[in-house]
Amino acid sequence: MDTAAATQTFSSQFRMAIYDFGAAAGSAGLRALFSLSGSLTSAKAAAGNIDLMTVNGQNDNNDQDTQFSSIMPAINSAKRTPSMCVTKPHSQLPSAMPANVLIW
Fold it and tell me: Residue 22 CB: number of other CB atoms within 10 A?
């Protein structure tokens, strides 16, 4: 976020939202921690508060507590405009294309 803030050429050029898999394995699901915003300083502070998910115990649910099969579709629904996965460097994208980039 520091690099984005230092290199943006206009305010809110880069915006961020932060989600996690939930606070506890028993209630796992997409949880919004920081709403989409151009305030990268606030996003950085929110990211610094992310903690590990608690689990019910070793071997509970075969230790499969990161439910990618349900979280990924939920992330796509949470994004304002679902988009393709961006695999090219930003410099190779069309300039008019706003990029939705998922980092996990």
Answer: 18
Residue ranges per domain, the chain? Answer: 2-92
Q: Which ranges of the chain does DSSP label H, i.e. alpha helix?
A: 2-7, 40-48, 68-78
Measure the CA–CA gap between 18 and 58, rounded to whole angstroms. 28
Q: What is the pTM of this model?
A: 0.72
Per-residue DSSP letter, 50: -
Express each pLDDT in 25-64 by its tens digit.
888 889 999 988 889 999 999 999 998 888 888 887 777 7
Contact in structure between 99 and 79 (CB atoms under 8 Å): no
